[in-house]
Amino acid sequence: MNATSVERGTALRGFALTAALLSGLMLAGCQTSGPAGEFNNIDKAQGSSENISSLSAVIQRNPQDPEGYNVRGSAYGRGGQYQAALKDFNQAIQLNPNFYQAYSNRALIQRFLGNQEAALADYNRSIQINGNYDAAYIGRGNLYRKAGRTQDAFNDFQKAIQLDTTDARAYHNRGLIYQSQGQHKFAIEDFSTAISLAPDAAEPYNGRGLSYLATGDEDNAFSDFNMAIKLDGQNAEAWANQALIYERRGDKAKAAKAYREAVRLNPSYQPAKDGLARVS
């Protein structure tokens, strides 16, 4: 996961480790990303130049159809072209002021661009138009969680789940909140549901591994960290967490190797740097 922001939780209350290991593992948990994480389960080919060209051709044939702009804006977003995406969502909303999906999509782009107030306004508008739109609750919940409004975030993820969402993010993010509160049984259940909905996503495995470790289930934790690495070899947190298991088992050579990989992937990731110093 190419993390663009680091969020620290208190995921491991009551977990009997040395102070140094506890500090490192707490920092290794509850991380989220920017665009890469949001689009984790979306085919990046949908944002390719070839696909953009075909979508542009559709818009040229029917320039008054707001759906065309919404679809192309989503493709631009997947491809990291955020200003182009913003322009398309603006056009979609101009053509249809009640296009709740476009408001939610534009909110996501505003988040990535750092325009948090504009993002919140768009999520609110999307929900105002359609109070049953799960994606808007999930997006707004992420916005709240990153702003430290944990209860508001929990309420939004809960609402999406009550709407029978099939979006793994609702369960994953609610699991992160449970984890931060030390409610690891509930966290493990949510991460497991997220995995069932998005089996190719590394983050729920990494999150569940931390909660397994917090409850003393080292074997399942190790298995989850390994799976997270298998699914996303660029996940520095998962490498650091795998290294911690090796360290706890006294295998300093393998621990050092995994910590080095975590540092290589993210040179500023302090838990990996601290871990490497301990085992070197």
UniProtKB/TrEMBL annotation:
This is Tetratricopeptide repeat protein. InterPro entries: TPR-like_helical_dom_sf, TPR_2, TPR_rpt, Ycf3. Gene3D superfamilies: Tetratricopeptide repeat domain. SMART domains: TPR. Keywords: Repeat, Signal, TPR repeat. Residues 1-28 form the signal peptide. GO terms for cellular component: cell outer membrane. PANTHER family: TETRATRICOPEPTIDE REPEAT PROTEIN 6, UDP-N-ACETYLGLUCOSAMINE--PEPTIDE N-ACETYLGLUCOSAMINYLTRANSFERASE SPINDLY-RELATED. TPR repeats lie at residues 66-99, 134-167, 168-201, 202-235, 236-269. It comes from the Bacteria. The lineage of its organism: Bacteria, Pseudomonadati, Pseudomonadota, Alphaproteobacteria, Hyphomicrobiales. GO terms for biological process: receptor-mediated virion attachment to host cell.
